[in-house]
Amino acid sequence: xxxxxxxxxxxxxxxxxxxxxxxxxxxxxxxxxxxxxxxxxxxxxxxxxxxxxxxxxxxxxxxxxxxxxxxxxxxxxxxxxxxxxxxxxxxxxxxxxxxxxxxxxxxxxxxxxxxxxxxxxxxxxxxxxxxxxxxxxxxxxxxxxxxxxxxxxxxxxxxxxxxxxxxxxxxxxxxxxxxxxxxxxxxxxxxxxxxxxxxxx
Amino acid sequence: xxxxxxxxxxxxxxxxxxxxxxxxxxxxxxxxxxxxxxxxxxxxxxxxxxxxxxxxxxxxxxxxxxxxxxxxxxxxxxxxxxxxxxxxxxxxxxxxxxxxxxxxxxxxxxxxxxxxxxxxxxxxxxxxxxxxxxxxxxxxxxxxxxxxxxxxxxxxxxxxxxxxxxxxxxxxxxxxxxxxxxxxxxxxxxxxxxxxxxxxxxxxxxxxxx
Lengths: 201, 210
Prior knowledge:
Chain A is built from ten helices and no strands. Chain A is an all-alpha fold. A two-stranded antiparallel sheet of chain B has the order 1-2. In chain B, strand 1 and strand 2 form a beta hairpin. In chain B, about 35% of the residues are buried.
């Protein structure tokens, strides 16, 4: 593969598993050195590939690599969220569990917390750039579930999914005055802010 | 808008009537920010824009540039509150009050020269104040602004502050990622949205006074 690659051209050297390993290694390294202190050597070593390979996958160098790694981690975060609520019986339970799990995961996300403390501007601007994608992912997921729910009169699946996705992301950004560690509060939150206008009563 | 307020045509910065020297300097700072962003706004430029000497700026703001910029931020917030206040006062139902809040704050954000400049050219200077661990400060600003008005319809401060937090979330979300389907400049669309998703949640959990 390494020998053949230059001859067959760049498009062929895209192995999703190698790409995934480089991105995961980047997230790990960013958690130690930050986004600006990161070097491609570090990433290559952590991923168990050569430096040239990292360049082949991310021609834009460090900036592209870091940008892509954040997007990859965010996408992975939402996949983990969907897995966590998979199999729960009701839409309501999924929302409750999802809100609590998402909040905890973010609080316990070492790399994110490290960046928030050390490179706050940079990580928040990157996450803001990713907000449309995040919103689309959550909205799409919720819309898939809402088609099976009995919605309040006049409420479309799309409008409800957009509203709920915005609230999910907002609460992920900050629980505000709501205590997401208190099940009674979570239940009250989901009943009022989330579902009161969405589901048929 | 107050009839005696004047609007700077170039920057959209509104000057409220009868500014004190401190307010004049803060307004000049806002015009500088609207034109050149925060980084380029130095005390020298502020003084020129305000038509005063550098020494005068420092006399009113011993902390220098950082203090002036903070004052400008507070001034913009004050402007925001003054612009909304008459409409908030005039609202006779909770629904009207919420429509004014969401529609009015989206309008005020969109028409603010300094905020528009920051969001488009120096987002790294404004976005970090709007996310994660700093969010409670934003919610407090919203709650302080809306509490006196909401209390006309809600039984206690807690209910008022939670509702203020809720609408702050809505406005910020749409500011960050505008919706293709909901235009916050469309008052009727805002009303329908609030009737659909917010008002039912109020009767569900909070006691409202009539």
